Amino acid sequence: MPRHSPQAGQSLVETTLLGIFVLVPLFLVTPLLGKYVDLQDSTLQATRNAAFERTVWSETGQRDGMTTAQEGNVLPHPQVVSFKCAPTT
User: What gap in Å lies between CA 31 and CA 35, rounded to an integer?
Assistant: First the structure.
């Protein structure tokens, strides 16, 4: 007849405690960490965009030759500059 030791079921209890005290908080903290990193990235992108916009606008309030009243909410198409090279012989 098999004898049961006093430690029978100990692994199940340890796994349950591990799940409750370690794995559940880990799964709850992971999305919060992701949101924090996304917030940092969004803030950095906004500062870069603000710095870029500052370099594009002139002191007279014009952008690419258009006034803000003419522009409205539509951004103008960028002007394409083509360089023609002299043929080499």
Answer: 6
What's the confidence (pLDDT) of residue 66? 53
Give tens-digit pLDDT for 16-67.
999 899 989 999 999 999 999 999 999 999 999 988 888 877 666 566 555 5
pTM over 0.90: no
Determine the Cα angle at 78 with ends 73 and 82, to 5°: 170
Ramachandran bin of 32, using left for φ above 0, alpha for ψ from -120 to 50, beta for the remaining angles: alpha
Tokens of 11: 């692994």
- 3-class DSSP state of 67: strand
Is residue 72 classed as helix, strand or coil in its secondary structure? coil
Q: Output phi, psi for 85, to 5 deg.
A: -95, 145
β-bridge mates for residue 63, sequence order: 66
- Distance of alpha carbon 69 from alpha carbon 74, whole angstroms: 11
